[in-house]
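Limitations
The structure tokens in this dataset are predictions for the assembled complex, not deposited experimental models. Users should treat interface geometry with appropriate caution, especially where small molecules or nucleic acid strands are included. An illustrative entry is reproduced here so readers can see what is and is not provided.
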Amino acid sequence: MTAAEEQGAGGPRDEQTRRARRAVEAVWRIESPRLVAGLVRLVHDIDLAEELAQDALVAALEQWPRDGVPRNPGAWLMTTAKRRGIDLIRRNEVFARKLRLLGHELEIAQGAAVFDEPAGTAGAEGGIEDDLLRLVFVACHPVLSREARLALTLRLLGGLTTDEIARAFLTAEPTVAQRIVRAKRTLAKEKVPFEVPRGAELAQRLASVLEVVYLIFNEGYSATAGEDWMRPGLCEDALRLARVLQGLLPAEPEVHGLAALLEVQASRAAARVGPDGGPVTLLEQDRRRWDLLLIHRGFAALARADAAARARGAAPGPYALQAAIAACHARAVRAEDTDWGRIAELYRALAAVAPSPVVELNRAVAVGMAEGPAAGLAVVDRVAASGALDGYHLLPSVRGDLLARLGRAAEARAEFARAAGLTRNGAERALLLRRLAEVAGAGGGGGGGAGG
Amino acid sequence: MRYMMLLRLDPAKAPVEGPSGELMEEMGKLLEEMTKAGVLLDTGGLRAVEPGAVVRQVKGKQTVLDGPFSEAKEVIGGYALVQAKSLEEATQWASRFLAVHGEEWEIEAEVRQVEEPE
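Predicted assembly:
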């Protein structure tokens, strides 16, 4: 809303207009991914599709507050956008030329047939879902930078405005806008086909899609910069995207695995923020504050992941394994009930399918709990010796915990000080400095700097 | 953000034969759409004709009333718990919920945000 509109506000009529406007925008948020996806199929270009979709939104903002929201707003928006497209071909030579360049020569010669669809095709469920799925794969295409994929996915599939994306990532709005413009240009330049990949390519491209959703969630779950520990809005956007993917790709085990992981992680959101806004580690969380509904949804998604993997004769993938680990924690009513042996086992399986020093560090935490701090420290020291995690604050943080439990207070304090110097997150730094202060001569409890 | 949609109706004014097959099918489609959109977290219908119970506490003294409650005009017929970006979005889903009911239904949905930690 502009400042001028805000100033004019006050009367009941203004309030009514604003309500109506917000209602239209809410419908837009619901409908825009499918609308843009359908239009991209017709014009083969995201930019043009968005332009037509925006025109339809403007028409809705004019008409709906007066006539009411139509019974089927999605169909209304699509029809309006198509009509606008036909109109533009006839009246706007630039638009027509763009379409010709996109390979619509013949259809334009036949009188704007770009926007003609046999009755039933557009409205058919499979049709819309296929459109959405194609859009997912294009927005997460590997030719795009990671930042571009995140921004484009939130914009096209999450229905977020550029401004909302900028606020979520603490970036300036023009930067995000630029990023999206450049991404669309890259997709056009590289002639990225608007299609769902098949066969071996599908697995690889799906990994990129899942990574985008995972990264969006993580950015909200443990903000890498700024003073806030969490940005729950981003977590909710990612959760919603993961659930949308479950509907679009029900046979893919890792899609359910990712959804399960995010549901269970999100269930801890309330418990992992302390009264001062700072982080509370997994083992110190008040488990009564975990969200049971999300936990159960996570378990259900995990069961679907297992069933889909079995149907395919495949072993659990990295997301399903991480979800299984998160589920182990969710099952423990008290921290001391945690089945650390099982968790260490799952981390070993995870390290086998997706080897990474971060996984190894987490395994060290689990081994430290299952077999004692000395065994955990041995694993951490191997990770530290590899040098792969130099500069990663959780390495000294985990090492500090294990050293403290072994009663090696001076070394533990040095590690916490190092970890505090490495994190970019203000709330996390405060937590690490508190741990430092807590380490007295005797080895204290606690543990598990990673995870949460 | 989470919103609870409480669906209220007056059983006396509802069709005697209950929800039609067509309504059930339309409702099923809508619920599937809401699930696939990642919006619907939980939903259920409440039995109106079966006797329920009300536990009431006044000044520390409890009474248990068994149904049916003939004096109650409106009853909660069902609920849906949704995750939405705004009250307007949740309201929009509520509107779609009601729209699948035909003209013979007099029904309202109250949309309330669920208390959540910031």
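Some entries come with short summary sentences. For this one: The interface with chain A takes residues 1, 35-39, 41-42, 81, 83, 85-86, 88-89, 91-93, 95, 99, 116-117 of chain B (CB under 8 Å).
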